[in-house]
Amino acid sequence: MKILKYFFLLIMLLVTAASIFVATLNPNYVVVRTKIIKTPRITAYQYINDLRNWEEFGSWKEDNPNMQFDYSVNSSGKGSYYNWKNGNDFGRIETVSNKEGMLIVQKMNDNGEISDVFWQFKDTLGKTKITFKNIGKMGFSNKIFTGIQGGIDHVVGTIFERSLENVNRILDFEVNTYKVKINGYIQKSFFYYLQKTIISKDVHIKKNIPILIHDINQFSQKNNIHTVGIPFIKYNKKDPNRQVTSYTVGIELKEMIYTSKESEFVVDSLPATHYIKTTLTGDYSHLYQAKMKTLNFIYKNKLMEDFEKSYLEYYVKDKSISNNPSTWITEIYVPIKTKAKPKKYYKPKVEQTTATPAQAPATTETVTPTNTNSN
Fold it and tell me: Quick one: where's region Disordered (predicted)?
C-alpha cells in the first residue's frame, strides 16, 4: 500500500510540476511562413482573398474530411467570412481589411481563441513571394496541446506550410491550364431580359460578378419569374482614365414582364445581333487573351466589330459548380457588323452553333416583386 501511495504522490507531483511549467510558458506567439510561387502576384492574391478557395487549399480539410463550411454571400474582400465545424471543434475566419493585390488582414477564431492573420504578396524575380503571419495568445489547454505536439510554431507553421504548398500546386496547374475555342459566327434573336446595371472600378469587376449573378437568380426565384438559360454580363461603357466600367447582369425572359418602380431590377431588351462566339475553358485570367483571339479572328476574316452593340459573357460553368478553375466555361460574344447577306467566311471551321432565345410574346405577365435592395 505504501508503494501505491508513493506512486500516486509522485504522479501528483509530476502533474503539478507540469502545470507550473505550462503556466510559466509565454502565451503570446508569432508564427511566420513564406513561399515563393510561379503564379503572378495579382492571381495569387485573388485566389487566397476568395475564402471559398480555402476549403480547397487548406491542409486542415485534408486532415479532417468531414469538416463543414459555411460562407458569406460575398466570399472576397472586407467583411467576407467562413465558419467551420468539425465535431465539437469550431472556428471562423473573417477578412477585416485588404489592400488590392498586396495585403489581406483577417481575424481567426479557433475554438474561442482569437488571433490575427496577415497575408502579404510581393513580386520577386518574376515570381510571387507569399508571407503568412499568425499573431495570437494561447490559453492554458492550447499550451498543453501544442507543447505535446512540438510547440505552437511547429503546429501552426506545419499547417500553413502544407497549405502554401497546395496553393502553389493548385495555381500552377489550375490557373495555367486553359483552352480557347473560336466557335465562329452566330446570330442571337431579339429578347427581353431582367437586368441590373452598376458602375465599379475595373479591379472589382470579377469580385462583383458572382454577387450580381447570385442576386438576380435569387430575385427571379423569389418572384417566380420564368427565365431562359443562365445569367450573362453585358459590358456597357468603359472609362480607361478613371479605370471604371459600367456593366449589367441580365437573364433572358420567357416573356415580357413588369417590375415595380421601387425594384432594383428592371426589364430591358436586346435587338437581334450578329456575334463571333468564343468559348474559354479555364480561369478568368485568360478572358483577355480569349477576346484578343476573337478580335484577331474578326480582323483576319475582314469583319468589323460593332462598337454600338455590347460585348457579352455567359458563365456556363463557374465556381458555384466547380472549385477547379481549369474546368470553368465562359462563352464570349463579340458583336459584329453585317451586310445584307453574310458571306461564307463568316462560318467557322468547327460545327456551327445557333442560339435561339425566346421571341417577344403576344401576351404579358405582371410581376410585382418584393424590393430587395440589400447587398
Answer: 348-375
Q: Is residue 140's pLDDT more than 70?
A: no
Q: How far is CA 260 from CA 219, 264, 328, 351, 369, in A?
A: 13, 9, 35, 43, 7
Side-chain half-sphere exposure of 9, counting CA atoms within 13 A: 6
pLDDT digits (tens, 9 = 90+) for 221-267: 999 999 999 999 999 999 999 999 999 999 999 999 988 888 999 99
pLDDT of residue 353: 40
Architecture per CATH, domain 23-174, reads as: 2-Layer Sandwich (3.30)
Look at phi and psi of residue 103 and say left if phi exceeds 0, alpha if psi is from -120 to 50, else beta: beta
Q: What is the pLDDT of residues 318-332, one digit of tens each?
A: 888 887 889 999 999
Whether residue 175 contacts residue 66, with contact meaning beta carbons closer than 8 Å, is answered with: no
CB burial string 30-44: b at 16+ within 10 A, e below: ebebebebebbbbbb
Whole-Å CA distances, 153 to 28, 48, 63, 137, 138: 11, 22, 18, 12, 12
- Residue closest to 104 by CA, chosen among 125, 75, 126: 75
For the record, the C-alpha cell of 347 comes out as: 462560318
